[in-house]
Every structure is written in structure tokens, then in C-alpha cells.
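Model it.
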Amino acid sequence: MIMPVPALSACARMAALATALATTLAATLALAGCASMAPPYAPPPLPVAAQYPEADPAGAHAADIAWQAYFADARLQALIAQALASNRDIRIAALRVEEARAAYGIQRAEQFPTIALGASGSRARVPGDLSVTGRPMTSAQYQTGLNVSAWELDFWGRVRSLKDSALQTLLASDEARRAVGVALVAQVANGYLGLRELDERVALARATVDSRAESLRIFTRRFEVGSISKLDLTQVETLLSQALSLSAQLEQARAAQAHALAQLVGGPVDLTPVAGEVRRFDDASVLQPLHAGLPSALLAQRPDLVAAEHQLRAAQANIGAARAAFFPTISLTAAYGTASAELSGLFDSSSGAWNFAPRLVLPIFDAGRIRANMDLAEVRREVAVANYEKSVQGAFREVADALSNRRWLALQVDIGKTTLAAQSERARLAKLRYDNGAAPYLEVLDAQRDLLTVEQQLVQTRRALLSSQVSLYAALGGGVLANTSATSTAASTH
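Modeled.
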């Protein structure tokens, strides 16, 4: 039976042993991990022109405008907020960040020794013919203490480089999450604009159907009294049939657009038109003017480019780990505690025990494995450089395309307005000529058909202009989600 006083003494002794072990490990940690063999990081030169090809009017920088301020429509703001909370792509991207954070935590822990408190006991009997004394023997051994198992002393920075690589991968995952958010904001905005476009086109088609139905009623009455021919009546019926067909097609397209938008939002949402909501709207009333700035600014504004740079840094750190593999690996296994042949003597004053087993391994021949691993790390770094440059070129093109679309679509809108005014006057004059008997109804038929086409095209062009503004906003890094704890946590634990 263990008496209380010896037990307290043993606890005090174990505390002293733990303090001594901790002091020794702290000194070893100070010596290890100070070096890093990773090459210094230098960002690749921009593989694009210094300026965008299109003239860029004055305006606010996209990165300085939150999506709540850029999109003025309250219903669109509610849809974007719901999408950011419920969209499955956003959820997956956030879980990828958590996955990368856990992987970073595992790799970071490799820098430190694993200290475990262990206790073990064993009894064994040796028969007489195997015993040194020629008689059967029964032996016992009991021990307890603190253990350090195969801790690598990181003199060459291999473990540190792997930890840096995991950190950069974590930061890249967080930037990728933000990039998904930027894309989602743009997709929801474009989906909503498409829905509003179809609402306006459906309203125009319905108004046309009502007008032509009234014309058919009037022409049917005229035909019944013999004032017009059957040909005129069938031409009016043709106009109504065309308007009805267009209205049905637009209703189908609107339903599909609403379904796609509901999927983006990530849950059920009421997308039926509100009474009085169907109205014309343009970039002046919905979106703010944007200033593109210089291509070099994209490197900090666009999260996908920042993510590509973090991936490049991760590949750079892996080179350091591959270089360190050419040098000796030094590991330490140690134990510090008490041991006794009897359980009751485990905490006696003379039961202290320790072992210290450093191990050094120097690679001599591995059939080129370490060299091949070094070559693999360098090739992957070059792949990361190419991916980074490709991402920069793609971002440059997206901004340039959006600027070009904004310029030429604005011109097309102006031309469309002029065309609509001319076509409306043509339809009015054709109807007047027919009423005065100066032209056949076929002239009215062509004029009204062309008028409906021009009305629909103008709505489509105005929506395309708005979409170009949304694309420019996203291409410039606008709508970036605020950082969660991923970056700040990684920076604090680095």
C-alpha cells in the first residue's frame, strides 16, 4: 500500500523531472528550426501590358465598394445576402478552408516534440533450462514517466518549410473561398438582371398581345360589315399569333431563369413580379460608375490572383523541404521517470530512470530518390509560376473585355433608342396610310413586326450593358467577402 507522504514526494519529483525535461527541450527548440533552405520569394513580372486597351473613365475603385453599396436594388441585395448564406458552393469553399486549417495545424505540430505521460508493467517467467542459474525465474518491471518519441530536430528547416507550405495552402484556400463569393455575387446579380429583362420583355409582349387582340376585334367587325377583305383579317390574325407565340416563349424563358436564380440563392425564394415593379432601369439608376485603374492593382484586388500567389509560395517552400532532405536527419527519443521491479517501489527515492537516444541518418544511396524529389519540387514551382501568370493574363482579359463591352454596348443602347423612335414613327405612319387607303395592310404588318423586334432588342441590349458593369465589378475584385478568421488565425500562429 502506497503511503500518502511518499506519494506526495513522488509527485514533487515528477514535477521537477517535467521541468527539467521542458528546459532541455526548450533549449533544443531554440537551436533547431532556425534555418530555412527555401529559395527567396520573388513575384514573377506581369505578363500583360501596363494599361488596359480601352479608355477608362473616372469612377470609384471596385475594391472600395461593397456589394451592398454597388447594387442599389433592395430585392437584389436580399437575394445576394441569401445566396452568400445558403449557396452550396460557398459552403463547400468554407469547408475547404477548415480542411486546410486542420492540415496546417497537423504540419505545424511537427515542429514540436510530442510529450506523453506513460506507465507500463510486465511480469515474465523464465524456465530453468533457459535461466542462467539453472532454476526457474520470475521477473517483473514497472515504470512511469514522460516520453518523447522520435522528435526530429529541424536543423535544416525541412519541417519548417513543410509548415510554411501548409500555411500558404491555407491562405490560398481562404482566398479561393473569397473568389467563390465574388463569382457568386456576380452570378446572382446577372441572374436577377436577366429575370428583370424577361419581366420587361414579357410586359411588352403582353401589351402587344392586348393591342393586337383589340385590333383583331375591330377588324373582325369590319370584315363582318364588308369594309375589309379576308386577307386583311388574316394578316391581323397573323400579327396576334406571332405576339402570342413570343409571349409564351418569354414566359418559358422567365420560368427557367427563375429556377436557375433560386438554385444560386440556395433555397426557396419568391421571384414572382411585384405589382408595379416591371419598369425600365439602366446603369445610371442601378450601378455606380467604376474606375479600372492599372493591371498591377489587380494583384491585390482579385482573390483568385492572391490565391495563385499563395500557391506559388507554397511550391517555393516545398523546394526548401526537398533541399533539406540532402542533409542528415537528427531525431531524438527520450524518457524521464521512475522504474522498479516492484509496484510498491515505483516511487522510492532511488527509482529514478531515464534514457536518451539521439539518432542521426545520413542518406548515402537511395537510387536517386532525393534528387528526383528535388526535381519534382522545382517542376511544381514552375507549374505554379505558369498558373499564376495564366491567372494574371485571364484577369487582364476579363477586365479588358468588360471595359470594351461597356463602351460598345452603351453605343448600341443609344443606337437602339434612336432606332426605336424611328420604328415607332414608321408604324404610326403605316397605320395612318392604311386608314387613308394609301397603303395595303401588309405595310402595317411589317412595321408592327419590326417595332416589336426593336423593342425586344433594346431591352436585351440594356440588360447586356448592365451585365458588362457587373462583370467589370467582379473582374476588378469588387464584392470581395470580408476575411474570416482563417488569415488572422494563421498569421497569429505562424
